[in-house]
Specification:
This protein is mainly beta. The protein has one helix and nine strands. The strands form two sheets. It has a five-stranded antiparallel sheet. The protein has a four-stranded antiparallel sheet with strand order 3-8-5-6, with no helix packed on it. β1 and β2 form a beta hairpin.
Length: 110
């Protein structure tokens, strides 16, 4: 079985951060991998841009590739900086860029 070429995450980070900076809503996203129940997406947000509170998938993690974000849930906020990996709580949550940021969101859906 032939394996697919690896993704250049650095190039995706640069591309989507540039798109977010030029977008009126301050964000850009790209589905990197969709394999059965597994999904991985690159999400770029400009400083101050938020993803409103939304429901959590059965399992998810957030890896910050560039910048800093605040993951909010149940009235609390957890700051995550570049290089950090955070489990997404299994409750409604939101995300705010504390500075221009790019994250890799990994989810598992039933």
């Amino acid at each position: 079985m032939q394996r697919p070429d690896p993704f250049d995450l650095g190039a995706l980070v640069d591309e989507h951060l540039a798109r977010a900076r030029s977008a009126p809503h301050g964000r850009s996203a790209h589905l990197v991998l969709h394999d059965g129940v597994l999904r991985q997406s690159v999400i770029a947000l400009t400083s101050g841009t938020s993803l409103d509170e939304h429901n959590a998938p059965p399992a998810a993690s957030l890896q910050v590739l560039r910048g800093r974000v605040a993951l909010t849930a149940a009235g609390r906020a957890e700051e995550v900086a570049a290089g950090g990996l955070q489990v997404i709580p299994k409750e409604r949550h939101g995300l705010t860029a504390l500075e221009d940021a790019v994250v890799l969101l990994t989810t598992v859906n039933d």
